[in-house]
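R.M. (postdoc): so does anyone remember the format we settled on? I'll just put the structure tokens first.
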């Protein structure tokens, strides 16, 4: 006799709960364990492989047993809502942030490192193209209105996430924040550039700017910071040119 819709739904939930936590939730009755094992391994290994690909640094920070335990915790505890594989990374970031708030004994930099690694993935998959932004590629960003690339993202962290790896695991964040310009270049490779506070403030101003030239943006920024060292204007000019060379500034607003 076929199961009723309610009974079918209950069976499916029981089956899914067992796959998430096979050590603590018994399998539904009447299913051969050998067959269940195929599903248990397939589902878990798919998630573990997907996360390892999206978070390669975090994967290298953990030995095999610790990594599998972290993936199992995520798989068991986090109610992910997206059906899209490329968005599972965002769910993992959210899980690590919530886990840190609960006082988990993970490395304190782990949530920010996860955010940084997933930002690289998101930028690599961004469907926009730099050419979509109207600009004059021959324009001078010093005298014209600079057009920042939509594929240049300004990020700020407490931890030096771009340096963390198996050989560098800081115990405390530095006094100054880590400021990063994440950029997908003309070859579709994602690269990062560390910025100082002036550089980060200047690029943020350029992103919000619609009418001022690059030099006007720079001078306005320096005027807001009374007592700025005389050499900062030259440094800002050099930065504008470097951003143009790297492709973070595409050119200038067309007339």
């Amino acid at each position: 006799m076929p199961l009723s819709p309610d009974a079918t739904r209950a069976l499916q939930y029981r089956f899914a709960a067992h796959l998430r936590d096979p050590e603590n939730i018994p399998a539904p009755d009447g299913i051969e364990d050998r067959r269940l094992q195929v599903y248990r391994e397939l589902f878990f290994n798919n998630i573990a492989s997907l996360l390892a690909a999206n978070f390669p640094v975090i994967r290298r920070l953990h030995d095999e047993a610790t990594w599998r335990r972290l993936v199992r915790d995520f798989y068991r505890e986090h109610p992910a809502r997206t059906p899209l594989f490329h968005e599972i990374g965002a769910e993992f970031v959210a899980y690590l942030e919530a886990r840190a708030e609960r006082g988990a004994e993970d490395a304190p930099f782990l949530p920010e490192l996860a955010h940084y690694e997933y930002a690289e993935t998101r930028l690599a998959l961004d469907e926009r193209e730099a050419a979509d932004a109207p600009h004059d590629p021959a324009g001078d960003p010093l005298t014209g209105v600079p057009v920042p690339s939509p594929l240049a993202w300004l990020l700020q962290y407490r931890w030096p996430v771009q340096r963390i790896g198996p050989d560098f695991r800081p115990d405390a964040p530095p006094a100054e924040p880590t400021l990063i310009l994440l950029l997908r270049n003309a070859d579709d490779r994602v690269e990062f550039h560390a910025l100082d506070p002036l550089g980060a403030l200047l690029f943020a101003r350029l992103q919000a700017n619609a009418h001022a030239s690059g030099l006007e943006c720079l001078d306005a920024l320096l005027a807001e910071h009374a007592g700025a060292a005389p050499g900062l204007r030259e440094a800002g000019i050099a930065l504008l040119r470097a951003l143009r060379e790297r492709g973070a500034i595409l050119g200038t607003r067309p007339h």
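R.M.: ...and that's the designed sequence above, right after the tokens. Also worth knowing: The longest helix spans residues 33-54. The radius of gyration is 24 Å.
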